[in-house]
Write a structure and sequence with these properties.
Elements lengths: L1 E6 L2 H6 L1 E12 L2 E12 L8 E10 L13 E10 L6 E7 L4 E2 L19 E9 L2 H6 L1 E12 L2 E12 L8 E10 L13 E10 L6 E7 L4 E2 L19 E9 L2 H6 L1 E12 L2 E12 L8 E10 L13 E10 L6 E7 L4 E2 L19 E9 L2 H6 L1 E12 L2 E12 L8 E10 L13 E10 L6 E7 L4 E2 L19 E9 L2 H6 L1 E12 L2 E12 L8 E10 L13 E10 L6 E7 L4 E2 L19 E9 L2 H6 L1 E12 L2 E12 L9 E9 L13 E9 L7
Antiparallel strand pairs: 1-40, 2-3, 4-5, 5-8, 6-7, 6-9, 9-10, 11-12, 12-15, 13-14, 13-16, 16-17, 18-19, 19-22, 20-21, 20-23, 23-24, 25-26, 26-29, 27-28, 27-30, 30-31, 32-33, 33-36, 34-35, 34-37, 37-38, 39-40
Length: about 700
């Protein structure tokens, strides 16, 4: 690496950068080599005079009136002046016509108190302006200021405009919210004229920004001016301040006319005196009254079938339906003399209801009475398949008799059904673990699953299969109560083996049908199922060879050296069939024929290439000059082995590329960095310099 300085000239400064080329040379084994490189070095920019002004305004509510007051409230203007160039500025000033022209305020920020705005300084002027009526009428103040200064190239200036929003004008406003809540004074659940009331709440707030005096609320429904004393006058001065909320509460007695209408609608008005005169607001409240007294009764009837003899079928005169009658008060008055009648159960129910919580014999609004009574199923009901009937509940209310009907439809159990279901599956067993199907040795295990598909028990259950010699001899599992009867909830499983024949192997699968039979209440029932069992494929002998070569730069010369560098060949042998292979060998003419290397991968050390094994041979070959001249080595190897059906083999060819010839070369990179020696921030001829760096590298993989 070479480092050398260059002195910048005025011509370089005028151009703005320096561009030049250097050349590196050297002597290699093949003669002289050289390389060129050009460096472009950018110089600092020219000196720049610039000034920047930022003006902001903040409104001051001097008299804290919440409104803008001419001649009292002010705006504080802040003028921030910065040096936007790279040269100091003298004679700096700020003018603003709104503040009388040239600012009189002394700025902060002249850190070295030299009266010069340096590049790193920020000067801040602060001056107040008194708001006029014209400003208030406009709603905001918009004006422009100008900052000036003297730089090395002359006068510079900058303008900025500030827009200051003033507080809004004083506003007188009042707001009223009226709500009504119905009171069931006599807790009758109905609206009673002259007794029940509505409580009205009047909420009054100050919706402006001035206090309000002489505040009042009038409501024609309550006789005009409210007599209630409001809450919320926190300072007890009788004035509704901006932050206060006054609340009036007064009751109204409901009339019969209100009850007939069903609701009460009326309007109230709030008034007050502000700085600009009288203000008011209206609000209307609609209060819904309780409905008129209503007599009503509701009946719900349900039926549940009972299989009393647990036969799984409906039995006339034994099985029953339990009916439940639920009676509720659907109105808002109590009901007396409550009863339920049902023709199917002989008319008036004899059952005593539950739910009369106060034992007064009256069905109160909050009570639910429940009657429960059984019905014995008839043969006619069974023939129909369901029972449909209607019941009626009645009671006496304040307005007379009320009633309600409900119909229940109860579905009965179906008639007895005899049914049997058979599922047959077969699983092949490779008994001799040969991986092939062997006649007379390998078997198929058949599983026969028998279930009761009806609702009656089945006796004399049996399974026959011609493939297994007819009637199965295996004893089934699943007879949980050991009674020899296939109950509705039981599953019986028979398991029996079959020996595979050569004919089965030739076909490739075994297909056959079995039959299950049983005796039900209605006679014999049966079911068939067919199982198809696929056998293992025929034995297959196969061997597979993969050969790869990796070049070794033994002398690390970076070139291929005959008689020294080698190629390591890896031969990977796998069993591509489903039978073990013996007498496995690999031959390669390039390596002298039969490989002498001992393979890895014979996991059980039995000298047999099993289906799951991978054998790997590794042997080196010494590179010749002929190989180097060719540039690569191409050759083929062969793997052989003995299977159950004879000899199998496989070939594979490997192409190994050798390293290229040695090559001499040199490379040069040149860079330049400008040095501001006198730290002037400008380029000074004869003083400032450029530092050049020359980087020389050997570009190739072999060099002297």
């Amino acid at each position: 690496m070479y480092v050398q300085d260059y002195v910048v000239t005025q011509s370089d400064i005028d151009t703005g950068s320096i561009t030049n080329q250097a050349t590196a040379t050297g002597e290699g084994v093949n003669g002289t080599v050289s390389d060129d490189d050009t460096a472009i070095t950018t110089l600092l920019e020219s000196c720049l005079d610039a000034i920047a002004l930022t003006k902001t305004g903040v409104f001051n509510d001097v008299d804290t009136s919440g409104c803008t007051t001419a001649g009292i409230d002010t705006v504080t203007y802040t003028f921030t002046v910065t040096n936007g160039g790279n040269t100091p500025l003298s004679s700096v000033s700020v003018t603003d016509p709104l503040l009388g022209g040239l600012l009189t305020a002394t700025p902060s920020g002249d850190t070295n108190t030299n009266g010069v705005l340096d590049i790193t300084e920020t000067w801040v002027y602060v001056q107040d302006y008194s708001v006029t009526q014209s400003d208030i009428d406009t709603g905001s103040i918009t004006n422009q200021a100008t900052a000036t200064g003297e730089g090395v190239n002359g006068t510079v200036s900058d303008d900025d405009t500030a827009i200051t929003t003033l507080l809004e004008s004083c506003l007188d406003a009042i707001a009223l919210t009226k709500t009504g809540v119905f009171n069931d004074v006599d807790t009758s659940g109905c609206t009673t004229a002259g007794i029940d009331t509505v409580t009205y709440t009047f909420t009054v707030t100050n919706g402006g920004n001035t206090p309000l005096s002489s505040v009042s609320v009038t409501d024609p429904l309550l006789g005009g001016l409210l007599t209630a004393t409001p809450s919320g006058d926190t300072n007890t001065n009788g004035v509704l301040d901006i932050t206060e909320t006054w609340v009036y509460v007064q009751d109204y007695s409901v009339t019969q006319s209100d009850i007939d209408t069903g609701s009460i609608t009326n309007q109230a008005t709030a008034t007050g005196e502000g700085v600009n005169g009288t203000v008011s607001d209206d609000d209307t409240a609609i209060t819904t009254l309780l409905e008129s007294c209503l007599d009503a009764i509701a009946l719900t009837k349900t039926g549940v079938f009972n299989d009393v003899d647990t036969s799984g079928c409906t039995t006339a005169g034994i099985d029953t339906v339990t009916y439940t009658f639920t009676v509720t008060n659907g109105g808002n008055t109590p009901l007396s003399s409550v009863s339920v009648t049902d023709p199917l159960l002989g008319g008036l129910l004899t059952a005593t209801p539950s739910g009369d919580t106060n034992t007064n014999g009256v069905l109160d609004v909050t009570e639910t009475w429940v009657y429960v009574q059984d019905y014995s199923v008839t043969q006619s009901d069974i023939d129909t398949g369901s029972i449909t009937n209607q019941a009626t509940a009645t009671g006496e209310g304040v307005n007379g008799t009320v009633s309600d009907d409900d119909t229940a439809i109860t579905t009965l159990l179906e008639s007895c059904l005899d049914a049997i279901a058979l599922t047959k599956t077969g699983v092949f067993n490779d008994v001799d673990t040969s991986g092939c199907s062997t006649a007379g040795i390998d078997t198929v295990t058949y599983t026969f699953t028998v279930t009761n598909g009806g609702n009656t028990p089945l006796s004399s259950v049996s399974v026959t299969d011609p493939l297994l010699g007819g009637l199965l001899t295996a004893t089934p599992s699943g007879d949980t109560n050991t009674n020899g009867v296939l109950d509705v909830t039981e599953t019986w499983v028979y398991v029996q083996d079959y020996s595979v024949t050569q004919s089965d192997i030739d076909t490739g699968s075994i297909t056959n049908q079995a039959t299950a039979t049983g005796e039900g209440v209605n006679g014999t029932v049966s079911d068939d199922d067919t199982a198809i069992t696929t056998l293992l494929e025929s034995c297959l002998d196969a061997i597979a060879l993969t050969k790869t070569g990796v070049f070794n730069d033994v002398d690390t010369s970076g070139c291929t050296t005959a008689g020294i560098d080698t190629v390591t060949y890896t031969f990977t042998v796998t069993n591509g069939g489903n039978t073990p292979l013996s007498s496995v060998s690999v031959t390669d003419p390039l390596l002298g024929g039969l490989l002498t290397a001992t393979p890895s991968g014979d996991t059980n050390t039995n000298g047999v290439l099993d289906v799951t094994e991978t054998w790997v041979y590794v042997q080196d070959y010494s590179v010749t000059q002929s190989d180097i001249d060719t540039g690569s080595i191409t050759n083929q190897a062969t793997a052989t082995g003995e299977g159950v059906n004879g000899t199998v083999s496989d070939d594979d060819t490997a192409i190994t590329t050798l390293l290229e010839s040695c090559l001499d070369a040199i490379a040069l990179t040149k860079t330049g960095v400008f040095n501001d020696v006198d730290t002037s921030g400008c380029t000074t001829a004869g003083i400032d310099t450029v530092t050049y760096t020359f980087t020389v590298t050997n570009r190739w993989e072999h060099a002297p």
